Fold Auxin response factor.
Amino acid sequence: ILLPSSSSSSSSSSSPCARKVFISVDSELWHACAGPLVSLPPVNSLVVYWPQGHLEQVANCTPQAVDQPPIPQYNLPPQILCRLTDITLMAHPDTDKLYAQMDLTPVRESEKPLVSEEPPPAAKRKRNSFCKTLTASDTSTHGGFSVPRRAAEECLPELDYTMNPPCQELVAKDVHGVEWKFRHIYRGHPRRHLLTTGWSVFVSSKRLVAGDSVLFLRGENEQLRLGVRRAPKQQQDAPSMVVSNQSTQIGVLATAAHAAMEKLRFSVIYHPSTCLSEFVIPYHKYVKVINSTASVGMRFKMRFESADLTERRYAGTITGIGDVDPVRWPNSYWRSLKVEWDESAASERQERVSLWEIEPFNSAAILPPLSLGQNPSQKRRPNKPTLVNSSSVWDPAMKLLWPSNPPHLASMPESEDLSSPAPIWPIAIPPVMPDGAAS
Amino acid sequence: ILLPSSSSSSSSSSSPCARKVFISVDSELWHACAGPLVSLPPVNSLVVYWPQGHLEQVANCTPQAVDQPPIPQYNLPPQILCRLTDITLMAHPDTDKLYAQMDLTPVRESEKPLVSEEPPPAAKRKRNSFCKTLTASDTSTHGGFSVPRRAAEECLPELDYTMNPPCQELVAKDVHGVEWKFRHIYRGHPRRHLLTTGWSVFVSSKRLVAGDSVLFLRGENEQLRLGVRRAPKQQQDAPSMVVSNQSTQIGVLATAAHAAMEKLRFSVIYHPSTCLSEFVIPYHKYVKVINSTASVGMRFKMRFESADLTERRYAGTITGIGDVDPVRWPNSYWRSLKVEWDESAASERQERVSLWEIEPFNSAAILPPLSLGQNPSQKRRPNKPTLVNSSSVWDPAMKLLWPSNPPHLASMPESEDLSSPAPIWPIAIPPVMPDGAAS
DNA sequence: ATGTTGGCTAGAAGCCGACAA
DNA sequence: TTGTCGGCTTCTAGCCAACAT
């Protein structure tokens, strides 16, 4: 029987996984593990950075400490227009948790944005990966891993079925480049694909439990890679607490403020596994959505990741429009929509979303700048700013987004046709906004 | 044979070790694990906070990333006088790595410091703990843990030696309050104390390897506790990288600057395991040392932790005095002494130390304000500032330490007798200071 | 006094098909 | 098609004393 060593990997291969040094992770594997919803803007494109969203993520990655000293205050606009200078994909050395360092360079006013950098539609590749949620049997010490039939046939190297039983040794590299070896065998009645020897050390090394997922990815060069996705439940980070939470938060704001003022490059860390909203979004997405409209009562859909790790859409209704934090972040588009989800089991889903996260209910396109208003009380006057309540309330917002020239604020560049057809569409304030009754 | 269950612990006991919540750790155990050199100032005492040192520790806890964007700049003085409002002792939930959150409140100028708050000399307790570095046998799967004889007799509950063999079940709580059970037996020829059943799960749970240490601590109430000290070598943190390093560093500075300006409480995290210098030191220590003198050529001793986890002193000679970073932190006492160590195997030891870390060579007291100058070329004129080179260079330092009243700088309060006997002793600049040739 | 090793044993890890969902 | 289980085998974890340092 073929099967040279069939031992496990551990510290065998010559992978340059040095201590305390972060190596850039294979992009295809990173994105496969991150899931279909996570899409990073291309390098060198224009993006909008949302400090509020960054703070949300930091708070989520951090222990809710007993430590809430005074609130810092920085004169930051809600959003900063940047060029995405560079992206480094990374993974935590212990947990394989993914993240990305995004280098952002605030855009000078003189730098006019390219006309609506449209995203190149990525060609769909044929299926060359599979992701399976581990069962109790997969993770028990009693046996190995049951490979779904289609997955084995499409993603694993072909077996020599003349053997009895057919078996081979698989070698797959994880996100750090570490090699793992498995015995792949096709046996049993009825026949099935199994990974036996080597599987349990992988499970225990990665500390996988039932509910977690593994992902196999076959490259063009027949190189096999594999990744890990933890069950969303056990998202315990075991935060390392290098500095206090207060310092971390101040650091986020101060870094952005400093960078925006001096127009200097800065870096942010994005954790896709937090399942929170992305706080660096493509500029064209922002522009498109700013020029469109939304109103209370409007129906929409939004993409989510379902339990089987595929994409699905949930429907909801806009129930309010306004600032999340009117004091610290007035006139911000960040999570400006208050929504209600159709499904009653709508826990887990945010009750506030941002304009660019949603899609119109009739899935024509992603929020085209056509009239979408369906609420009769919010009749839209085309080509003119729709100021629902007092217009003076939203004047500062205008200034913030297209500032006259405040020295210490990041400036959004002027749109080419500020006075022509596509109007700046401000956020409509609903007549009644039950802010306190948020439950 | 007595031995009720002899099973391991894991998630058994009802310890309130909730997720993502940091519980304050038993102080005695924390300090025992931290080692004899780590001494935190008492709560409510005056302390001096050194942002430079804080940055050093942060850099040490953080991957040396490929990420060094532009340097931030804050107008911070090298030191900030604070009151130590509170201390919370903590431990990392996964690694048991110790740290302390220290809440600092910058002192207003109006708040005169109490006259030389002397530290109450802590009474030495009798030995009620032992710490053993694990051998290969201790950590192998082949057997248990060999308890040193004296340690067992002094720190473990007494065995009933009439039994054959004498044995009992030990229960010890770790730093998180989790209970671990061990079978303690006295057997073999010659007789010895061993921990058998339960030991290996502890080793694997804590991921201990040969070279790490365990520490047993017996309380007054016969309650047994145990802690873990990793070998200094494997100090890999697996940093969680919540935000970029740049943001972390900026956060440290911005937090301190903000707090100093507004006289608001802020928190810092201190990691004793970094083995770097403490960046929060008692004010009385600072005052004492500022009023003393030091000069190039002077001999001194300094406390270190030796391999067997006890305290020992190394001797060295001052070879230079001056700023570590003359550009960003001019006129700072932080690591202002450049030193050379006697032992040739002096790697690992810092080549720069601060005044308050060293002791005079003749161990009379801790740097009394007596004349200690031994270098004939640096003859000291008592009771007057010794300005070796151009005195104008050090004028700004004076202003920084005792500022006239800059609004955004933390101010050091005026010493009661600025013009009387005890002079402000400035750092002497050596004639030649080879800064580039640091190796 | 205590680290390491060989011997021995109990129990877990782990491979297999059967069977069911 | 694939999750779980009982049966069986192999191997390691783990207790012991002997021996060495």
Summary: DSSP finds eight helices and 17 strands in chain A. The helical segments of chain A are 27-34, 51-60, 136-139, 149-155, 199-205, 245-262, 283-290, 391-401.
